[in-house]
Amino acid sequence: MRVVSAELWEPAPGRVVTWDVLPGGTLPPAPASLTYNQRNHLLGAAAGEPSVWITAAFDVDGPVDEDALEAAFRDLVTRHAGLSAEAVRRPAGVGLVLHEPRALVWLRQDGPVTGTVEATREHLVGELGRRCAPFGYPAFLPAAVSRPDRSTIVLGMDHLHTDAWSTTVVVDDLAALYGEHTGRAAGLPALRSAAPGVAALARATLPARGTALLAAGEPAPPAAAGRAAPQRAEPAGPPAVPAPVGADDPRLATWHGFLRDRGWALPTFPLPLGVPDGERVAQRTVVRPLADASAADTIAARARSAGASTSAAVLAALAAAVADLGGPTVLETLLPVHTRADTAARRSVGWHTTTVPVRIEAAAAGGDTVTDAALAATGKAVRAARELSAVPLEQVVETLPQPLRFPRVDIFQVSYLDYRRLPGHAASAGRRAHHVSAATRADDLQLWVSRTDDGVAVRARMPRTAIAIETVDALLARWAARLAGLVTR
């Protein structure tokens, strides 16, 4: 899976086809509960925040079989209940309803025949921004770029429907369903499931919409922190939702202590980015490797020998790199962590993450060395942070003695995802699978680290200012050097 942003996406030109999906008039939508995160997000969207979408894209052989692809899209929406959700404006605020998948009307639309990568990207990104907004139905865009030899299938989704993990499920499910309907994958087990009734969908737990606490690493509008509640998992039921913990629970106390030490403010990147307080500017995205496959294997082995994980090694090297550039000796950030607890949840599409705080000490060391002691300490800190995922973020916010402060709209966060462990990974390279995110505005640094068969890479999202470019480029170089030091030591 290649993780990029819209401005870096390079879809080859071809004949574009999209689908409009309309609610059918035979069955009225069923009301559904709006989660804490969804309400906060929708209020932000209603105030004018830009669309935040995530797109799953992959290639198939030959020109698109449009009938087979439409059938595959239909099956996918039937299978994943959250894709039937619609956010609505109401006199008293905002709400959520669920449509019956079997009543949806699909209308195919022939788009342009593009001649360049730039024209293809411009058209698709424009359609994604228009169609993948949270209000109205659908908040997703089924599309394809058909070519004689190799075509691209696209499903863009508002963050209401998906997270980074889910994009891998979408690619794997759609590829199998499309193969089933074209007859190119004889013998594959059918992925379709019986469409659940609207009443059953209304009782389902839907994915929470984003807040300034990011889950799966996508930009979100300003809002109070909240827990990303999991979506209905098919067919075994929803993943467990964390229950409130006791007022004297040490995990709740840890959350409070982290925020208290920061003056009740969420973390911000500690080096200069050149954005005045209260302003946001166009984002810049950088995608670069941090370690090749061989180096990543060595780093993983070093981390294991110190009682840590590869993700802990990446964080330890990041903390050291920040300190090398004049930053603090203790790096404070937020980590998105998944909440997929069983096999059924692994194959579901939704926003199944929460967010936890972590402090990483950058131990003083000469040269580019990150010591085994620093790896061990970071491993311990990451394990302790993950234990905090059992505390609902609503409870964290509601029990604070003072209001939570948001120095910036974006939150400094570091996401780590090992795609080798996710559905469909073995086939993703052959499918040229992409996770493409909307390019919006930024006022802080956000990092998404990916481990694949090619090694470790990072996508960095930052404000497009001269200072941020200089700072982040220097940071990525030092980060890579610190990881290289783990290989050569």
UniProtKB/TrEMBL annotation:
Residues 218-246 are annotated as: Disordered. InterPro entries: CAT-like_dom_sf. SUPFAM superfamilies: CoA-dependent acyltransferases. Gene3D superfamilies: Chloramphenicol acetyltransferase-like domain (3.30.559.10), Nonribosomal peptide synthetase, condensation domain (3.30.559.30). It comes from the Bacteria. Residues 218-235 have a biased composition (Low complexity). PANTHER family: FATTY ACID SYNTHASE (PTHR45527:SF1), NONRIBOSOMAL PEPTIDE SYNTHETASE (PTHR45527). This is Condensation domain-containing protein. The lineage of its organism: Bacteria, Bacillati, Actinomycetota, Actinomycetes, Micrococcales.
